[in-house]
Write a structure and sequence with these properties.
The protein has 128 residues and is mainly α. It has five helices and no strands. The chain has one domain.
Amino acid sequence: MIWKLNDTSIDLAYTFDNLKKLLNDILNQENTFSHYEFSKWCDNLTMVFDEDDSTDDENDKDLDQWLKDLEEWNENDLAVKIAGDIEREWDLNLFENYSEQQLKTLDISQVVFPEKWIQDWVKEINSL
């Protein structure tokens, strides 16, 4: 399946290392992007990884490639889990904290994740 990715101002490849970098940038208040843009980037990461998984043909891989993929699986699996959490929490946070009327007029670029959530995601991604 081919996904239509969200437009986002974050121009980085969808990788574990870039997710880690972006989370650390937010935690250290060094980000030049909104949490909304980050949430869209995370949603894209989950779609890209889902597409990559669906196109793999295990029968065509040699042993070295299979072992390399197994090593990367841990990073990729964690990246997809965290990125999925971020994207879902973004939506839940909006709907739990803002009325329908507020959402219609809200400057979404000013909404931020609670710092504790960012800290938890950074701790989780640094656990590997």
